[in-house]
């Protein structure tokens, strides 16, 4: 399987080529040149498979350059009960007889769904770097969950260093502790005097310095990484099969969304033939995606319009994976995508209402809803009272919006994107008690903190990286 860019149809190579690179040279995102599909009979065969086998079946058509046995071994190493808490890996729980379900994606090392893909990336990076005798320095920015998921995935990986920028003092205490308590030779936490957008701009500035980037083998594991999207498609299959529906019957999914990576993986599963009826995008107050799906206009929100909310991992004004979706809506017309993204880059709206593309969007099964802080508190409280189940604020966004789109007779699977322990402040505000926390995180806030403070300055960041890497030569 070959990959192409959403903007220019440039060949980007095979899976392992796009795994280690970020944006395509023309600024677009990597997409497979076609999406393989399962027939109804093949889907029946997948129904009973354990997670690792299912992951293999879903992913291997897109991965032509890792031998079958090696890929199986990578997946076996990744999706283990010791790492994800159960043999099911992603258990499905019914919320009473409401027809709503929770697909548990957050029982991994960092307690958020990002582990599902990031753990795979950790093993896949190690494998590819070993094979090619290379090393990489991952430079990333996090507003909370990505950083800890990436660091836990790269712990002890000899060919990988992680430089992770975070906005100083702006993550939850628990999230800070998750990252800063790590005392590992290959992990560098950098607290930047600024906000998340500043961190992201610093990453961009370093990447824009082609010489520095090449000299220090700077890589990324951000939300546009194709390997993450592909690994995430697997649990839609797992969740669907766990419902035990008659062959061909539809299920709907509701996904708390920010960068559109998780829900796009659901769309990929639907395109592969999984009977997904509707895909519901749940936003918080930062409802740029809701604006698009309800009005047909995609207009990126400038940083100053993006509010700080109690579901902070969705505080995003620009959904970086959205380009992949519009590429498919335009029938892989990269010229069209290029034109749209010139508008996006200029801060102008992309208006699809009068075009044939809008009909494609409406046929795609997507819909969207949004919620407020008060909605989240009320939903956390109600799910606790009615179903005896404590959920986190992001998952609450999903349950609230999922409920509002529930169709009679069609199950609605709501994705649990984090555990409540990660966002104890909001959960306490909702139900008046502390959420349980896994024993390994007891007292984590009191542990010594390992991080470096840097000003919001790209030259200072480059100097720090250069100093840590010393004579870096492959
Ligand atoms: C990252 C994250 C999201 C948003 O996922 P996207 O793939 O960016 O849409 C939602 N909830 C939680 C808890 C997250 O960490």
From TrEMBL:
Its cofactor is pyridoxal 5'-phosphate. This is Threonine synthase. The modification N6-(pyridoxal phosphate)lysine is found at residue 114. It comes from Deinococcus proteolyticus (strain ATCC 35074 / DSM 20540 / JCM 6276 / NBRC 101906 / NCIMB 13154 / VKM Ac-1939 / CCM 2703 / MRP). Its EC number is 4.2.3.1. It catalyses: O-phospho-L-homoserine + H2O = L-threonine + phosphate. Residues 2-79 form the Threonine synthase N-terminal domain. Belongs to the threonine synthase family. NCBIfam families: thrC (TIGR00260). GO terms for biological process: threonine biosynthetic process. It is an enzyme of class 4 (lyase). The lineage of its organism: Bacteria, Thermotogati, Deinococcota, Deinococci, Deinococcales. Gene3D superfamilies: 3.40.50.1100, Threonine synthase, N-terminal domain. GO terms for molecular function: pyridoxal phosphate binding; threonine synthase activity. The keyword Cell wall biogenesis/degradation does not apply.
